[in-house]
Amino acid sequence: MEISSKENTRFFSNNTILPVDRTSFKSESSASREKQSCCGGIKIFLGALSFVYFAKALSGSYLKSTITQIERRFDIPSSLVGVIDGSFEIGNLLIIILVSYFGAKLHRPRIIGAGCLIMSAGTFLIAMPQFFMGRYRYERFPSTINSTVNISPCLQDKSQTPLTSLEKSQAKINAGCEKEAGSSMWIYVLLGNLLRGIGETPIQPLGITYIDDYAIEENAALYIGCVQTVAIIGPIFGFLLGSLCAKLYVDIGFVDLDSITITPKDVQWVGAWWLGYLIAGVISVLAGIPFWFLPKHLPKPESRKDSSTSSEQSKFIIEDNKDQHKPFQQQTKMAEMAKGKSLDLFGNPVYILYLCASIIQFNSLIGMVTYKPKYIEQQYGQTSSKTNFVIGLINIPAVAFGIFSGGLVMKKFRIGVLGAAKLSLGSSFFGYLLLLSLFAMGCENSEVAGLTVSYHGTKQKTDYEQAVFSECNSGCSCSKNDWDPICGENGVTYISACLAGCQASNGSGKNTVFFNCSCVGTFESSQSSSAVMGPCQKGNECPKMFLYFLVISVITSYTLSVGGTPGYILLLRCIKPHLKSFALGIYTLAIRVLAGIPAPVYFGVAIDTTCLKWGSKRCGGRGACRLYDSSALSQMTNHFSLSYVYLGLTLVLGTVSIFFSVAVLWVLRKRSSPPDETLSANGERGTCGTKSRKDNFVNSDCLIQSTYWPEKETRL
């Protein structure tokens, strides 16, 4: 038995065990190294791409946070600010087709790295006007400036004002006009944002497709969700940075801050908007460095080596294997290749319908996000600093959590394409339904004599140009174009001390107090005729309404963002693999051109129609708006309220997008079929309904082969 045992052992050692052992160890170690290389490479790229998404989101959100600052600094209306904001999308438009079409054939990581450098150059250019234009000038009555001369606000006798002082002041204004007339420094902001758009172009189409190409199929949704979640962290820091810079005076470091007579609560206040762009530019440079050291290709996972389509895509994209590469082998001219791709892509009904739904929804969301700081400032009387802080710390995290939740739900419950369409539709429907409730959470207009109320305390219903003058200030030499608000003891704001009929003042700068104001004394509830610098605060109910607004806004942001990742997966899985990069590029192009460019412009034009008081430029002409009609039910005969325009436009667009989303779901359901009808004519495809319950997410999404479609192929 011992000899037999030894012989058997020797026999197996020499002839069987050792050779098989070496081969298995070699294959196992090779597979292990390949798996580690694949996982390690894609995770490094994932980290680098996440940081780039953070950088571009930070600079983009910081621009949103400085919309009102730029508007006041360059004295331009909201519609022109919308053009500046839309220039980012114009930059995308210039090269996105080239990047999307040829990017997949080139070194994708290095193209992304070059884009980061261009993006940082544009960010630096936006900040440059601060160093070339003069110091910021705001409207102020001469007596509020540190001076030993006490001038009566109501200039009944113009000889009270020293002639030399008026002449000097007029000379300075004329000199400033000569300098400002030939310069429109806001153009540099527009060009810088345009350059940012060019640099940002390759990040999304090349980065997302790179992950989808080399990631394990079941992890792709989670990876994309992670990237989008990190991208939302960027706006958190962007708005917080905007909040910090809004507290600092625009010319900090260049002027004596003690001489500044306005506060952050004043509508003429401009923060250090340029400082954040310098910080964002440095971050963009750092974000692009890793991509210069990443490889052009990564090893594909074992599950994707045997087929060019994912297991789920094969259920939706059914085509003859013999003809799959034949057209591209025969087509040698680039124009014919582009034509073939375009026909395949635009013949896909799900892609077209989802594209339409996304375009309209992004019109709604881009317009809402762009002017949300302005809406909060005007509707609830908050400062720019507090507004940006609230959006960054409360609202944006809800969006990040919603996007991540969408990706997590997709992975945990193994939701397929049909389920992704349902989840995306549901989030949009309930999100816009919640947004409808914000109509009941507005504040009434601030009481501004001559604008929202008359000088006797009644609601104003006539044009302000005739209403700013009254019997109480008829003896004063006042200008209707001035905006230097004061707050009367009666709680009413007056456009200027002159229009309030004030006869005397005491103190200087921010501490100026006005006395013997004839218009303050004639007000119905007035018991005194004095006033102080700055506008009055809104009503007592407004802070409570602001809290309600924040709660609903957070829930709405979360609900809408849950559908973000399912929408991406729906987009990626409803197209052929070789069209993936091209389809994402066209999708991004359409969003940029038809939503990103026009939405801020027409939202801005619509918001400008609610303006009650326009500022005046130093050299004449209309400047930035000083006061909007923020009443929930406007009493003005020639104005819509800000809430109706801002919220109403958002809801109308959102409702239209929901109809297109319903159409997407209808087409997907129409192409689905029972398990026994999924066999093809030649029997090459199996049934979709014979797998375990674990795979039901695929079964419900299986489509009929294209007996109803031309060329015997599904266009999904």
Automatic annotation (TrEMBL):
Residues 466-521 form the Kazal-like domain. The keyword Glycoprotein applies. The keyword Nucleus does not apply. Residues 45-672 form the Major facilitator superfamily (MFS) profile domain. CDD domains: MFS_SLCO1C_OATP1C (cd17459). GO terms for molecular function: bile acid transmembrane transporter activity; sodium-independent organic anion transmembrane transporter activity. InterPro entries: Kazal_dom, Kazal_dom_sf, MFS_dom, MFS_trans_sf, OATP. It is found in: Cell membrane. One of its GO terms (biological process) is monoatomic ion transport. GO terms for cellular component: basolateral plasma membrane. The chain crosses the membrane at residues 40-59, 80-104, 110-132, 220-250, 270-294, 351-369, 389-409, 421-441, 545-572, 584-607, 644-668. It catalyses: L-thyroxine sulfate(out) = L-thyroxine sulfate(in); 3,3',5'-triiodo-L-thyronine(out) = 3,3',5'-triiodo-L-thyronine(in); L-thyroxine(out) = L-thyroxine(in). It is a multi-pass membrane protein. Coiled coil: none annotated. Keywords: Cell membrane, Disulfide bond, Glycoprotein, Ion transport, Lipid transport, Membrane, Transmembrane, Transmembrane helix, Transport. Its main location: membrane. Belongs to the organo anion transporter (TC 2.A.60) family. This is Solute carrier organic anion transporter family member. The gene is Slco1c1.
